[in-house]
Amino acid sequence: MFSLRRTALRRTALRRTARPALIAALLLALTTGFSTEARAANGFLTYRMRDGSDGSVVNPVNGNCYVFDDAATSVTNQTDTTAHVYSGFFCTDFLADVRPTESVVFGGTLGHSVIFG
């Protein structure tokens, strides 16, 4: 009988200390850990089109596909994230990785879209 009473007391004490810890952990997760916002690259990517005009993508969201206004003959990455350039529209047919602060000039195959991250 004494052991049953001791076990019941331990369970009650555990519940009293576990609940506040669980509540604190949930509050912390709700305020910091469950963010659904996508991370954005900071900066801009510029591209030179066939007609000599320039286009740009500013503070792009990582994982989103950005289609250039026209085929790009060169790309300069001034973001803090690697840009993955594709020769196909809608980010198909990988062409080149352009790391932060790098520029790439394309030869025969031109860039049409880009994904960051």
From TrEMBL:
<protein>
    <recommendedName>
        <fullName>Secreted protein</fullName>
    </recommendedName>
</protein>
<feature type="signal peptide">
    <location>
        <begin position="1"/>
        <end position="40"/>
    </location>
</feature>
<keyword id="KW-0732">Signal</keyword>
